[in-house]
Amino acid sequence: MNRIGIIGAMEEEVAMLKEQMKDVTVKEKAAMEFFHGTLNKKEVVVVRSGIGKVNAGICVQILADDYQVDAVINTGIAGSLKAEINIGDIVLSTDTMYHDMDATEFGYPIGQVPRMDVHAFPADETLRKLAKTACEKVNPEISVFEGRVVSGDQFVADKALKNQIIERTNGWCTEMEGTAVGQAAHLNKIPYLIIRAISDKADDSAQVDYPTFERQAILHSVKLVEELLLML
Ligand code: ADE
């Protein structure tokens, strides 16, 4: 893996990574700034995609077409869907699945884009194992989980909705980009990993917890990515 694309949905999620890059050239496309250079001696392209599935999908396609990246890492925050996954903890994707794609009327399982080959997009196992080791080294005070990351164009802050998503997807955390990254990576045959630090519990407390814990959660995923790059 020579050249790694690193996507964060929000500026806060990529700002610290960009600050530490060397030999940077910046190009703009689709209202996104692509920072191409090195980070911890590894060639990277760091970019803020913007929020939501379409922005994330477009971003991966540009990384594939214009930069021929060998892997895509999507770092950021998410709401927990499991009682044992606490605020500040990390979830590494085993796979990704949409919670808001519903063509069950035509016999497709929840999450499956009609006429596609899979209902969940498998993430890269090698990247995941390395990321786990990196996380245990730099974030020893928190727990790191490996499980399904689910996505939809919805900030989940309601217990009933949260329970419905859990029942439909068996997801471990919910956010708004990871599956679009997974789908675009799958279509382009590029290995990918979603790294999510938990900022809230995706229930009625999410509105309060999210702004309180956003910074701490972002710090955990940034530290993990920096360490992971040393291993690739
Ligand atoms: N990102 C962080 N928390 C989230 C939530 N509860 N729902 C969707 N995206 C999120």
UniProtKB/TrEMBL annotation:
Residues 3-229 form the Nucleoside phosphorylase domain. GO terms for molecular function: adenosylhomocysteine nucleosidase activity. It is an enzyme of class 3 (hydrolase). InterPro entries: MTA_SAH_Nsdase (IPR010049), Nucleoside_phosphorylase_d (IPR000845), Nucleoside_phosphorylase_sf (IPR035994). It comes from the Bacteria. Keywords: Amino-acid biosynthesis, Glycosidase, Hydrolase, Methionine biosynthesis. Its EC number is 3.2.2.9. Pathway: Amino-acid biosynthesis; L-methionine biosynthesis via salvage pathway; S-methyl-5-thio-alpha-D-ribose 1-phosphate from S-methyl-5'-thioadenosine (hydrolase route): step 1/2. It holds the Pfam family PNP_UDP_1. This is adenosylhomocysteine nucleosidase. It comes from Blautia stercoris. The lineage of its organism: Bacteria, Bacillati, Bacillota, Clostridia, Lachnospirales.
